[in-house]
Amino acid sequence: MPDAAPPASPASDAPPLGQTLRAFALDELANAARQLAREGDERHAGIHQARKSLRRVRAAMALARCALGEPGRHLDEDIASLCRGLSSLRDGQALVEALKRLAPAAPPDLQSGLPQALELAKARREALLQRALARDPGLARRRRRIDAFARRLARLPWEEVREKRIGRAVERSERRLAKARRRVFRQPGHDERWHVLRRRLRRLRQQDHLLMTLAPALRPVAGVPLDEATMLGEAQDDALLLRHCASRSPFPPPMRRLLRDLAHERLARVRDSV
User: I need a labelling partner for 52 at 20 to 30 A (CA). Which of 26, 46, 119, 201 fits?
Assistant: First the structure.
């Protein structure tokens, strides 16, 4: 699903940048709560969309980080904590999606076993969700946390946001991305460094999208390459498959070996091309 549309292009009587960022972040928090309220089979997609909205909130707050001060940083940390708390549920859905995307490129010896692998992944996804719902029926506790985040976010000093500070925040995101790239090139076999690179690229893309109509002059100078983001997303699929082929894998040993071999091959190919 594409990123949410950024706010409308400012006109001469448009509200200050800070207020527009505030409205955007509040809309995304409201959407995250709505997504977590989805029921039945739609819960899996809802969790994924909720996490995307929470990440967009953090990207908007990062643009205003200097103006929002310590209260803003504490709120950002709490939103990040909720995202991490949803990550295992998201991984359950991501594994199902990764197997579906893998099917067209799978070799013949794996093709025959993919339907079984997919059913096992779906069973694991459902078990993870049911355990979460047993502890937090309807994910209501998490939705209340998001409502509390919205109240805190609304009280932050968004009126202190200035274009110059937003420009500096974009430059900071660009520096962090450049640093992540250098670290990957120095140690290309380090999985965590690739994960950090993907996060840094995603953050800059979110900020670029947000600024596209809000303040085009403040967009990242070098732009954000979509092909690199796509390749890193594919690599994330393969890294996820590898994690689920370890000792606590839902897959039987012969299938694990086939999935591991294919994931290693695809991961090496993607990383060599970045």
Answer: 119
